[in-house]
Amino acid sequence: MSSYEKTLDVIFGRWKSQTLYAGVRLGIFDSVSSDSKEAALVAKEIGLDDALAYRLLRALASLGFLKEESGSRFSITTQGDLMRKDHPHTLRGIILLEEGPEHYQIWKHLPKMITDGRQNAFVREYGHGAFEYAERNPEYAEVFNQAMSSYSRIYTQWVLEAFDKYDFSNIQHLCDIGGGHGHMLSHILSKYPHMKGSVLELGSVIRNKELLWASKMGVGDRCQYIDGDMFREVPSADAHIMKLILHDWNDDECIKILSNIYNGSSDGGRVFIVEHLVPDPKTPHFSKLFDMHMLCWGSGRERTVEEYSGLLQKSGWNYVQTLYPGNGLIGIIEGAKSKP
Predict the structure, then answer these.
(1) What is the pLDDT of residues 104-132, one digit of tens each?
(2) Per-residue pLDDT at 150
(3) Which CATH number among 1.10.10.10, 3.40.50.1100, 3.40.50.2300, 1.10.287.3610 corresponds to the domain 3-84?
(4) Which one of the listed residues 183, 247, 276, 285 is annotated catalytic?
(5) What distances in angstroms separate CA 130 from CA 20, 33, 168, 249, 300, one per listed residue?
(6) Residue 247 annotated as catalytic
(7) Which uninterrupted H or E stretch holds 223?
(8) Cβ-count burial of 50 within 10 angstroms (0-12 exposed, 13-18 middle, 19+ buried)?
């Protein structure tokens, strides 16, 4: 692909993601199956205009999510399956969140924020930060939670791979801070049966017991859910882990969280920070684009290993090492309460 074509592909990138968003939002992928179906029948089933529905289906087929056959018939592809509600690894929540109205609107503030030197477009657009906005808008909160569940499935695989050769023998209790429904922690406990765990999370997140993973994974007897606030107090444990938590917050807020963890840890305690780590200047990486989203979404940012090491040091920790899965998309920074 030429530089000209690559540039055009970036320019028109939002056309692709918005087309996919429309398909998911309207229920296209839960109507079309592996057996081909006429566009008019799809439109009738989910209450769409026949002619315009066909044009959307055709565009989705052009993107590889559907397959168009003669007679205006469509079937779903493996790629399209990932957009279905019932797929075990569905990405539906992610597209509904990232291309939904709230996140679409905040990006328009990017040039002005960079000019002003003040980030957090959620406050500019809605008058509240993202978490407070979610408390006031149940529909956004529901989509956000769906997206976090989809993200959890992806990141859990990467975390387990990065930890594959790590020695957990001296860790008896692992606390997942902001661990949602406990997807990652439950999988870690399943792999390391000598450990027990706890999830620190807001009560509104863990209130629905049916969504919690510990019982579903058969580790409910070794995992407890704690209603709490990481900015106030963190439960004691041999080690604490945070997945995509610190990138939500500015440096002072991160130091407050890490200091609370330090205070809840015994000598020799460990902290694991799971994030998209910004590599050297010459390496293209998802973290550098994700950083633009964090600039829009809140007060946080993506950071380098050196920057996280500095935050650890300022909150009392000693940097130990960084672990990576094979794809290098995330890293796990390990900190120790005393020198290793």
Answers:
(1) 999 999 999 999 999 999 999 999 999 99
(2) 86
(3) 1.10.10.10
(4) 247
(5) 24, 36, 35, 12, 12
(6) yes
(7) strand 223-227
(8) middle
